[in-house]
Amino acid sequence: METTKLALVSKILLFIIAGLFIGSLFVPMWQIDLDAPQYPEGLVLKLHANKIGGDVEIINGLNHYIGMATLHTENFIEFKILPYIVGAFSLISIALIFINNRKFVLAFFATFVLFVILAGLDFYRWNYEYGHNLDPNAAIKVPGMAYQPPLIGYKQLLNFGAYSIPDTGGWMLVGAGVLLFYIVFKEFKLFKKKQII
């Protein structure tokens, strides 16, 4: 009879995954870098699990001229609930060590993938609204121009180059996802070649 219990290495990895989830709460998860000739040192927006950091006031000042809404942590419900979600993922990772059943790990991995997809869609919506819903009375108006930052990667916005990439916390979540996939891959022996008898 095939066992559903986890291997020791999987349990160790689940403990590491729990640490990655918790650790991601204490460092920025995402960053948007802005480069322009008038700001040779660059500007950066740091998105933490619970707040917006970086050069927020300067960016808000620039946004005012082109009609974009200013950015304030309290305007986003995501910053209120995200720490609880990530904290719950960490607790579940620890609980799975004691539950000791690979099917629960598979369900957890599927839940995490769904979370990543929904978070990506929400981030895109957030960027879209801020880049397209412009004040018609703004001092600077460029017909047909929107200022939506890229979801990930690079985009030119007038004289600013915008780079949207994961920060330390984001890479920690990527690492947690990769390790979870590895556990599922090994526990379920995915893509294992069938032996010919």
- Report the radius of gyration as a whole number of Å: 21 Å
Whole-number count of domains: 1
Major pleated sheet? 5 strands, antiparallel
Question: How much is the average pLDDT?
Answer: 89
Model regions low in confidence, pLDDT < 50 over at least 5 residues: none
Shape label: elongated
Span from first to last CA? 19 Å
Spatially, the strands of the biggest sheet line up as: 3-2-1-5-4
Our estimate of the beta-strand percent is: 15-25%
> N-to-C SSE series?
HEEEHHHEEH
Helix content: 40-55%
Number of helices: 5
- The total count of strands amounts to 5
Return the structural class: alpha+beta
Please give a handful of descriptors for the protein shown.
5-stranded antiparallel sheet, elongated, alpha+beta, 197 residues
Question: Could you characterize the architecture of this molecule?
Answer:
51% of the residues lie in helices and 16% in strands. It is α+β, with helices and mostly antiparallel strands and 197 residues long. It has one domain. Strands 3-2-1-5-4 form a five-stranded antiparallel sheet. Strand 4 (153-157) and strand 5 (160-166) form a beta hairpin. Helix 1 packs antiparallel against helix 3 (78-99), helix 1 packs antiparallel against helix 5 and helix 4 packs antiparallel against helix 5 (168-187). The two termini are 19 Å apart.
